[in-house]
């Protein structure tokens, strides 16, 4: 992840999306007229990896992350009282997106958001966030910080039958250390 975000802006811009290509780089700076601004860099890869893509990326995205997310969906299906293969068969051929996110430190972090409060509209999100505790979830009218652990993933359920609900979450900045995260958004083929 560091290798990508450390390259020059002109090199990053070469990954800009053109006519439904599989990856895209973006700098997101919005909220010029808002009290809380969004400011982050992202690099997204779609599961349908194209020719010439890195074998390591393809292996990680298609085999490791997709296999892990489909296993979690099997367990969720069993807990909902449906057959183990119910969600797996629905999501096995998927259009998942893997997104690397980089949030630079800000002098006034209280004036900047990495992401606004939101719910993920995907079936499942797997998140690996590194070192900096700035992911927050909203529960009982209060924001709680999720402590990062390099060896852990955070799982956020998106779509279900209402028995499991998605959590509202946001990302904050700090004034000392960049925050980096890797997310896989599991979603069915359209």
UniProtKB/TrEMBL annotation:
Residue intervals of the Isopenicillin N synthase-like Fe(2+) 2OG dioxygenase domain: 95-188
GO biological process terms on file: flower development; gibberellin biosynthetic process; response to light stimulus; unidimensional cell growth
SUPFAM superfamilies listed in its UniProt record: Clavaminate synthase-like
Entry's Gene Ontology molecular function annotations: gibberellin 20-oxidase activity
InterPro entries reported in the protein's UniProt record: IPNS-like_FE2OG_OXY, IPNS-like_sf, Iron_ascorbate_oxido_reductase
UniProt xrefs under Pfam families: 2OG-FeII_Oxy
Name the record gives this protein: Isopenicillin N synthase-like Fe(2+) 2OG dioxygenase domain-containing protein
Species in which this protein is naturally found: Solanum lycopersicum
